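Need residues for this backbone.
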């Protein structure tokens, strides 16, 4: 990060060391040192598999009603309260990656969408049948969901909790390999059929991304 002139701070949360920095739009991102889970199988020059990013560690929720958001996590989603500090609680689910959700104790004002903010938190569902089971679970908790929305690569349902956080439950299926080979994922900008007519306009607004080629080890 120093070589790329990225300003960062060192921090620690629940015993895990972190590097905290902001992206070009001001969104705070944290690199978390965590031992759970297998190491990455890819490496590039200067970044070996023992220090490479494994995946998402989790998310931090800033809620307008943190007590009720915590109820959603435990009573509807089945997470458990794992750790607690003076300012934040950590809820955990089974899994090695993306299995922790931290909830700030403070009541945070409702945010406004825009650059530098997070629009929603997404949860995984195996398939659409499982997704519909989750819809019933959320409705039983007293919250209304949207209808199932077809996103071409997956289907989604959305709902707000009482802390005004927007949640998405998205399916794994059919997956991103429906219109390109697995080995070539991410090499081209793929668009659902309904947006293909607007490709030139969309490509004109998308910043180019260049990634170094990694090696599978």
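Answer:
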């Amino acid at each position: 990060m120093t070589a790329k002139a990225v300003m960062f701070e060192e921090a620690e949360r629940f015993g895990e060391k972190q590097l905290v920095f902001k992206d070009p739009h001001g969104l705070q991102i944290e690199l978390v040192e965590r031992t759970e889970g297998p190491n990455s199988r890819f490496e590039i020059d200067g970044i070996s598999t023992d220090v490479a990013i494994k995946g998402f560690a989790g998310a931090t929720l800033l809620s307008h009603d943190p007590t009720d958001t915590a109820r959603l996590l435990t009573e509807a989603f089945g997470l458990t309260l794992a750790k607690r500090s003076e300012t934040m609680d950590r809820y955990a689910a089974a899994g090695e990656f993306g299995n922790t959700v931290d909830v700030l104790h403070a009541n945070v004002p409702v945010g406004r969408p825009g650059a530098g903010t997070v629009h929603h938190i997404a949860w995984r569902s195996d398939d659409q049948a499982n997704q519909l089971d989750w819809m019933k679970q959320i409705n039983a908790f007293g919250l209304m969901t949207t209808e199932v929305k077809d996103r071409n690569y997956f289907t989604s349902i959305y709902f707000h909790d009482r802390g005004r956080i927007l949640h998405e439950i998205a399916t794994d299926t059919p997956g991103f390999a429906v219109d390109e080979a697995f080995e070539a994922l991410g090499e081209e900008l793929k668009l659902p059929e309904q947006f293909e007519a607007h490709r030139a306009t969309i490509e004109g607004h998308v910043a180019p991304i260049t990634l170094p080629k990694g090696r599978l080890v």
